[in-house]
Specification:
Elements: E1 2-4, H1 8-19, E2 27-30, H2 45-48, E3 66-69, E4 73-77, E5 82-85, E6 90-92, E7 96-98, E8 102-104, E9 119-121, H3 125-134, E10 140-144, H4 148-159, E11 163-168, H5 175-192, E12 196-199, E13 203-208, E14 234-239, E15 244-246, E16 249-252, E17 256-258, E18 274-275, E19 281-283, E20 289-295, E21 300-301, H6 317-333, E22 345-350, E23 353-359, E24 366-373, E25 378-385, E26 388-395, H7 401-418
Parallel strand pairs: 1-2, 1-7, 2-3, 7-20, 9-16, 10-11, 10-16, 11-12, 18-21
Antiparallel strand pairs: 4-5, 5-6, 8-17, 13-14, 14-15, 19-20, 22-23, 23-26, 24-25, 25-26
GO molecular function, one term: oxidoreductase activity, acting on NAD(P)H
Cofactor: FAD
Pfam family, one: Reductase_C
Length: 420
């Protein structure tokens, strides 16, 4: 068995293979040099704690795996069942799990300075380490995108004493993910924390310093830059609404794209993620199963029973865990493996409160607000599609999600049974 992707989904798959009796050769391939680590803390306590949080994932004793770290995969030949690595290594496989995750979207805003000049993305541990070093009190942080990652990073910057501006194209943060009601609640939390939240706009252009002097003006703006800023360093941005901002640190939180470019030429069309069937088996464009290949996590597009079999991009921690385990069972059992029917879930910690969601809130055509207490910082909403529950979200009311989860799980299992 070969697992390409040595992070959460890959590790959970390896653990499941061994737990369910696989005794053969097991190889994990990772593009990064790091052993498996947890990503959620990277936008939270890893940035704010005086000592960086330990993000390492525990690897069980006796896993008996070969680890090929810092050696990204560059090609797949499904006919010969061979994965090729960047160093020329060719790995034959009987079963293959694709779990290469996703990469941060970048390079989409004109004027973006080069590496080390003030603009960051946040996906891996090295990204977080670089961003952490830049978040020093007194600096001006610009976060582009008020989704979950952007909101968490903005909250971290504010907690560290930075002046923070959060720019969002939608009318409220998280509008597409959780709707107007919950998004407006999150916007309130950001503003109460002292974040300058700008909605209905985005960054049209970055501005950088072009000369070094005690005081100077940028080549594209009359705004005075920070004294002594190095050539090419970020000094600010122009928004699509025409306003300008000063900033010396910026984080692009514009979503992610599946890290599947290495599959070019394999016959699998995976630009939006590897398409799979209900058992996580990879599919060719004609719908045929790719022999011996499964996919899980952010690199995969897995049909969701709550979505009527559609495969939305989720990018949740729980999805990586559950799909990694399910894909491993499919490698062992094939057609006898259970149909995937887990209910998606997500959490986010911002400004001292915890947001939790279950199901697929973005699918809802109707939102019901059961509690909205801004003073107590509590929110409970449910999401419905054609009158059927498809998701729920709470802020400060985590215990109330259990009933929603049970109802969603019952429906997901019912739908999955129709495809077993």
């Amino acid at each position: 068995m070969v697992i390409v992707g040595a992070s959460l989904a890959g590790l959970r798959a390896a653990e499941t293979l061994r737990a369910e009796g696989f005794t053969g050769r097991l190889t994990l391939v990772g593009a990064e040099q790091h052993a498996p680590y947890d990503r959620p803390p990277l936008s939270k306590q890893f940035l704010t704690d005086s000592t960086p949080a330990d993000t390492a994932l525990p690897v069980p004793d006796g896993l008996g795996a070969s680890w090929l770290l810092g050696r990204p995969a560059v090609g797949l030949d499904p006919d010969s069942r061979i994965v090729t690595l960047a160093d020329g290594t060719r790995l034959p496989y009987d079963g293959l799990l694709i779990a290469t995750g996703a990469a941060a979207r970048s390079g989409v805003i004109p004027g973006e300075p080069g590496p080390g000049q003030g603009v960051f993305t946040l996906r891996g541990r090295d990204d977080a380490t670089a961003l952490r070093a830049a978040l020093t009190p007194g600096r001006k942080l610009l976060v582009v995108g008020a989704g979950f990652l952007g909101g968490e990073a903005a909250a971290a910057g504010r907690a560290l004493g930075l002046d923070v501006t959060l720019v969002e194209a939608g009318a409220v943060p998280l509008e597409r993910a959780v709707g107007t009601e919950a998004g407006a609640f999150m916007g309130m939390l950001h503003r109460e924390a002292g974040i300058d939240l700008r909605t209905g706009t985005t960054v049209a252009e970055f501005r950088t310093a072009h000369v070094t002097a005690p005081e100077f003006r940028t080549a594209t703006s009359s705004a005075v830059a920070e004294p002594g800023a190095p050539v090419g360093a970020l000094t600010g941005a122009r928004l699509s609404d025409g306003r300008t901002l000063a900033a010396d640190v910026a984080l692009l939180a514009l979503g992610a794209v599946p890290a599947t470019g290495w599959l070019a030429g394999s016959g699998i069309e995976a630009a939006g993620g590897v398409p799979t069937d209900a058992r996580l088996r990879a599919l060719f464009p004609d719908g045929a199963v790719v022999p011996g290949v499964v996919a899980a996590g952010d690199a995969a597009r897995v049909p969701q029973p709550l979505a009527g079999g559609a495969a939305p991009a989720l990018g949740h921690w729980s999805g990586a865990v559950e799909q990694g385990a399910a894909a491993a069972r499919t490698l062992l059992l094939g057609e006898a493996a259970p149909v995937f029917a887990e209910v998606p879930s997500f959490w986010s910690d911002v400004h001292g409160v915890r947001l939790r969601s279950v199901g697929l809130p973005a699918l809802g055509d109707t939102v019901k607000v059961h509690e909205c207490d801004r003073e107590a910082r509590r929110l409970e909403v449910s999401y419905h599609l054609d009158g059927r529950l498809v998701g729920a979200l709470t802020i400060g009311r985590t215990s109330r999600l259990a009933a929603y989860r049970r109802a969603l799980a019952e429906y997901a299992e019912y739908v999955a049974a129709q495809h077993a």
